[in-house]
């Protein structure tokens, strides 16, 4: 991490950072953001030495890290990173002492690391939005789901770095890269043969164009995976601004590339996906070059054959993240498709509302990502009391940001739609629906904070079932009933979503 909050204290004055009672478990989160301690079942935990040795650990409690090592021995780099033992996280200057939690310190960490991530997510959103054709949205759900698998690194990399075993950050990213490559194969096959599927959803010409778009987008998948895994190397070390700088450079270049391909070279429709492919490969290349030649390579121990084994805990952490994003996206897509039943104006209004919601979500999500990295680092360093406090800061921060979003949605409901359309009928539908949407945005922001805590403590498995239940058992039936049976139309759709998020 880049901050040094306790630099005023001498090394002799600092207390040793606390060791958790058992360094082989993760913390669990209560409703108020606190971390409880409960015994868990005996299991083989993810530690490089113990897994390979086949050691079965003693029962773990909820106050320690996934990447623990009970005997204090650490795996050598094995990949050119220098053998021997690795030092514990207590040599980190920015980790506080056990028993010395500080609200000011944790708030400062959030305020310092969140703005670059907000900018990063907004700029990434702008790169995706450069495809002006509606077909450009097709495929983003599947690719986003693949990227969501990389959220396991938010837990594993941050805990490894906080525990002082920096080489494990690079090893985890290698594992995740190959895992994502495997997960991307069915996505690529689906895109390659998408036309026979799409003709059953849209007209034949739209299906043909969409299929052509997706075939070109296949070439962006490797770069997308490199970027999503590579940026976790920097995030685990607390380097958030560096990612923003890279995207700030690529975003305007992306606009120029799309303009040149679509209009200057007159490639037309097919120029849009080609532009996205070029931009995403440029993002990946610049990120790799930055890590290699500027900063971040201290966590890279070289390529290692161990990247092809011990995928168990990564899969257990990653799949729930994919389930969470797919459950939510598919629910929103179903609502968008069903909105077309009310006419073109309502479909356009729903698309505009979806864009507004996606933009407003970037802020609480960025804060949640920054906080989850901090929480995981503190747990990895054995500073559990500060991890509890960081969780509470995230809960309060999510509430305040979500409250601001709800105020913006309601007070500017007649002005926000003007950024997306000039059609008066569509503006009226969006404006009258935004007060309901604002409540959904509020609870969506609270949910983002809760999921951030779950990622930080390695409890992603809770989020998937919760999302499925909320969206498909509660939200969709309520949305359909209010929209069609009671005639509330789009407003009824979003009322159902709000109820699902609240549950």
From TrEMBL:
Disordered: region residues: 1-26, 53-98
Location(s), subcellular: Membrane
CDD domains, per the entry: MATE_eukaryotic (cd13132)
Keyword Transmembrane helix: yes
Any one GO molecular function term: xenobiotic transmembrane transporter activity
Keywords annotated in UniProt: Membrane, Transmembrane, Transmembrane helix
Transmembrane parts of this sequence: 176-194, 206-227, 239-261, 267-291, 311-332, 352-372, 393-416, 428-454, 466-488
Membrane topology reported for the UniProt record: Multi-pass membrane protein
This protein's GO CC annotations: membrane
Cross-referenced Pfam families: MatE
GO terms for biological process, alphabetical: xenobiotic detoxification by transmembrane export across the plasma membrane
Stored NCBIfam families: matE
Similarity comment: Belongs to the multi antimicrobial extrusion (MATE) (TC 2.A.66.1) family.
Protein name: Putative transporter
Phylogenetic placement of the source organism: Eukaryota, Fungi, Dikarya, Ascomycota, Pezizomycotina
């Amino acid at each position: 991490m880049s901050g040094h909050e306790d630099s005023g204290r001498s090394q002799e004055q600092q207390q040793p950072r606390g060791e958790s009672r058992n360094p082989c478990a993760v913390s669990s989160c209560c409703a108020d953001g606190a971390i409880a301690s409960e015994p868990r079942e005996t299991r083989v935990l993810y530690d490089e030495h113990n897994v390979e040795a086949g050691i079965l650990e003693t029962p773990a409690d909820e106050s320690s890290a996934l990447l623990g090592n009970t005997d204090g021995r650490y795996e050598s780099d094995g990949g050119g990173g220098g053998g021997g033992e690795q030092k514990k996280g207590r040599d980190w200057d920015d980790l506080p002492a056990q028993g010395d939690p500080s609200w000011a310190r944790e708030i400062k960490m959030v305020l310092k690391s969140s703005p670059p991530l907000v900018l990063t997510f907004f700029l990434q959103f702008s790169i995706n939005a450069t495809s002006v054709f509606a077909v450009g949205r097709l495929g983003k759900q599947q690719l986003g789901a693949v990227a969501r698998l990389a959220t396991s690194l938010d837990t594993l990399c941050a805990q490894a770095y906080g525990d002082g075993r920096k080489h494990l950050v690079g090893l985890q990213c290698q594992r995740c890269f190959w895992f994502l490559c495997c997960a991307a194969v069915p996505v690529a096959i689906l895109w390659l043969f998408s036309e026979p599927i799409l003709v059953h959803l849209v007209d034949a010409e739209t299906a043909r164009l969409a299929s052509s778009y997706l075939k070109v987008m296949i070439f962006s998948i490797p770069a997308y995976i490199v970027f999503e895994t590579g940026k976790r190397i920097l995030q685990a070390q607390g380097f958030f601004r560096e990612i923003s700088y890279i995207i700030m450079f690529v975003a305007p270049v992306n606009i120029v590339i799309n303009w040149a391909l679509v209009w200057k070279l007159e490639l037309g429709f097919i120029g849009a996906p080609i532009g996205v492919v070029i931009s995403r490969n440029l993002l990946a290349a610049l990120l790799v070059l930055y890590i290699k030649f500027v900063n971040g390579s201290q966590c890279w121990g070289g390529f290692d054959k161990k990247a092809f084994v011990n995928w168990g805990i990564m899969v257990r952490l990653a799949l729930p993240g994919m389930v969470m994003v797919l459950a939510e996206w598919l629910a929103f897509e179903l609502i968008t498709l069903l909105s077309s039943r009310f006419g073109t104006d309502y479909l356009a209004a729903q698309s505009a509302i979806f864009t507004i919601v996606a933009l407003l979500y970037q802020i609480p999500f960025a804060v949640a990502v920054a906080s989850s990295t901090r929480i995981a680092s503190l747990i990895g360093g054995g500073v559990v009391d500060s991890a509890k406090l960081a969780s509470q800061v995230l809960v309060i921060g999510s509430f305040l940001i979500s409250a601001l979003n709800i105020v913006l949605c309601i007070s500017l409901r007649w002005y926000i739609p003007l950024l997306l359309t000039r059609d008066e009928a569509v503006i009226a539908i969006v404006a009258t629906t935004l007060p309901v949407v604002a409540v959904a945005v509020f609870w969506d922001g609270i949910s983002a904070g809760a999921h951030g805590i779950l990622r930080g403590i390695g409890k992603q498995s809770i989020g998937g079932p919760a999302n499925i239940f909320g969206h498909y058992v509660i939200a969709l039936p309520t949305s359909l009933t209010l929209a069609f049976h009671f005639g509330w139309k789009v407003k009824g759709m979003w009322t159902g979503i709000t109820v699902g998020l609240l549950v």
